[in-house]
Amino acid sequence: MKILFYKPEIADASHWLALFARELPSAEIRVWAPGDTHAADYAVLWRPPPELFAGREHLRAIFLLGAGVDALLALERRRPGTLPPGVPIVRLEDTGMADQMTEYALHAALRYQRRFDEYDLAQRACTVSGAGAPWQALEPHPRASFPIGVLGLGALGAHVASALAAFGFPVRGYSRSAKTIKGVATFAGRDTLPAFLDGLKLLVNLLPSTPETDGILNRETFSHLARGAYLVNLARGTHLVEPDLIEALDNGRLAAATLDVFAQEPLAQDHPFWRMPRVTITPHISALTLPEPAAVQIARKIEALARGEAIGGIVDPQRGY
Ligand code: NAP
Ligand code: GLV
Q1: Under the phi-then-psi rule, with left for phi > 0, alpha for psi from -120 to 50, and beta for the rest, what region is 45?
Q2: Active-site residue, selected from the candidate residues 91, 111, 159, 236
Q3: Delimiting residues of CATH 3.40.50.720 domain(s) in the chain
Q4: Is 159 a catalytic residue?
């Protein structure tokens, strides 16, 4: 069995290759480089160039080294015929990302509920202006009246929603198909979106980027939240209508936002988000791909496919996730 590996942002793939060699000892795995048209049975990759797929109709599957499939499907939309037709695309399912997302979302929820963001601002005002520090206790938002909504209840969103509920927040979750999650009030389908959003104090986004979900974080969505609510976007920058967020922060409809993902990454140095006191940014780190669990999951799926068994995580290109 021959496996192609491609992950452009790492300079040295030896750790990954060693993990696959350990998990699939009889496989030959090589890093794809331009000009490599030799035979391969599987591709394991992230953000590939179109040339990688030339003449690869015989691949048995394409495994993504991430959860989001939007960049690969966008490549096919930009250059139809790039992806070999009929070859299944398989994304990572959790592999340690759900715990990371939960840490991030819980941190943001507690920061806003206890108003640590406002204490940060007070301290920063002191260091910047040199003026005396404001020494003022702020009333925290009672946890029971701090409803949190999680957009997307897949491998990541369901875990985040459960953890926030277990921590004592009132939690709602939104998905395409109906779900039952202990302690979470669930809503399914676009018609239920206003009821899901109604009066939320914090909105966490964990939807995939698809034609249906892009732009969902917009003025209309914000208008249903409690006045002075908070936004946490952990999914994709394409979900957010940036001018609508800036307007909502300016007019007080939203109190603050934490953004891990952006329409353009890296975020341009002159982008206003860098300098907006009510916006917290992180560089797309809310859930990193962990080599060990990712390689183990992909290896087990390759073995299952070789035995003719069904596997999870196959992307539906029509649905977009
Ligand atoms: P997933 O398992 O595919 O779950 C997607 C969820 O979104 C499902 O619950 C799905 O509903 C729901 N959904 C999709 N389209 C919808 C629509 N039109 N209306 C309502 N609900 C819809 O994906 P995941 O593994 O949880 O990952 C979610 C996203 O997180 C990824 O696509 C990626 O963009 C992002 N991500 C970001 C980072 C980061 O570091 N920032 C890391 C990993 C992933 P159904 O359950 O009904 O299908
Ligand atoms: C990262 O953003 C991923 O989709 O895994």
Answers
A1: beta
A2: 236
A3: 2-95+289-306, 97-281
A4: no
